[in-house]
TrEMBL record:
Pfam families noted in UniProt: CN_hydrolase
InterPro entries in alphabetical order: C-N_Hydrolase, C-N_Hydrolase_sf
Taxonomic source organism: Roseomonas elaeocarpi
Biased composition (Low complexity): 95-109
Molecular-function GO terms, alphabetical: hydrolase activity
Spans through the membrane: none
Annotated protein name in UniProt: Nitrilase-related carbon-nitrogen hydrolase
Domain CN hydrolase residue range list: 7-294
Amino acid sequence: MVVARRLRIAVAQFDPHLGAIEANTDRLLTLHAEATAAGADLLLTPALSVTGFPPEPLLCRPDLLRRREAALERLAAATAGGRPGIVAGAPWRDAPAGSARSAGSPVRGDAPGGTGRDRDGSGSLVGSVFDAAFLLDGGEVRGRRLRHEFPPAALTDERRFLVAGPAPGPLSFRGIRLGLMVGADAASVAVAETLAESGAEILLGMEARPFLGRAATERRIDEAVPPVVESGLPMLVAAGVGGQDGLVFAGGSFALDADRALRWRLPLLREALGITDWVEEGSGWRVLPHPLPSLPAEEALWWEATGTALLGHLRKNGFRGVLLPLSDRPADLLLLLRAVEALGAEAVAALRFAPPAAPENRGEAMARGLGIAVRRRHAGLPGLDPAALEALVLEGEAGAEGRLLLTGRSKTDLALGTGPAAGGFDLLADLLDADLRALVRWRDPEGTLVPETSLATLVPDATDRRLRAMIEGGAGVDAPARDGHEAAEVQRLWRALDRGAYKRRTAPPGLKLGPHAFGHDWRSPITNGSTTAFP
């Protein structure tokens, strides 16, 4: 009687710390030990799990690649003696033997628009840096495969620093031929067909995709269907998660059977170690089904994403807590609640600018109700801008206490040049006022913390619809008035967008929750006369 082969693959959906290779390796070894205890044969990790993502300019530092080599040796050693293998993600440099650059010489990436190739002092090409997957087993590095495809547009500048490798072939792991697919390869029909034609039995994807909302998360599953259908092979994808600068990585690792059915999935925006079980039948390998987590509402995902971003920024930058200004603004009230729920009241400090005898405002009342000690400052000086003085005081106190100064400027504020100027990180930078209104009503449906009277101070939804069309929909300056706007109102908004360019350039870094965030993905010149005259 033929005994069906079985395989247990653990998936490490975790949040690496960019550049902290030794700490990431320690974390991977802990996850490997947990996978061993769970009876796994293999641990699959996200793309660039050793170095963190996105590395971008760090790839120009020679020590990064040397430290990566030491990390892979430590991870490989953990697979000796029949313990589970590991598929780890890390950059790899192809440096020709005898090249002018020694191992200790700087690695330099091309200028913007370059290809990620390295050059020696004379400018000659001497190697390339790739996004790679490494198969570790039996105490050794058994093989590597290089990323072959890149998306046409991305929120990161990875194409400046990495080059495409050849179309990958499968690697053998304990008698099973695995097709490793790094990054965009996991959505590529051509890569999947190449692997199938080369004898792959299971497709293993490794990703780190920014969170761009509920619809984009569902599209990711849809993108995996054509490679599965065309190759006839099942696919398992390990997705990175966590906050890094202005990005939040989505997680949501998943498995599709060869019949393209979704059989297994991890939650979005949360770290987890998942276990998948595979069995080989007459038609090939299939993944055993597992109960699927429900997909939260859009507002719930926004809330989770802001908490993930805040925790990541705080932990990875070594802040001891946060400092928030207190006011009646809905954005400040929402930030206060988000900070307490993500960090706990003990990590949150709050400050209001008011004389000692001034009556308590809504922000102070909310802070005291959440268990936060409130302090007051009076920063007014004759002849000076109070907002500028308050910004200096906030930044000074946050810096002296080792706290992160949180900013409550919405995307509407950034578009129109309004809102507070101070801040160290803006959790609301990619949410319009209409989004804030929806988020408050989801989180506080009874209006006990943020009443409707406070929400009335936000710009009308109709204005935000117009701004969304301008920023995200590509509406031109001479576009006809729509959504109930008069031509004069359309012109006013365009002029405000232009005038706000300088303030957006000098604003603190902020969270990106979509493909049209201000900064990397949407910007306008500071000096701009296109809206001076309208037809």
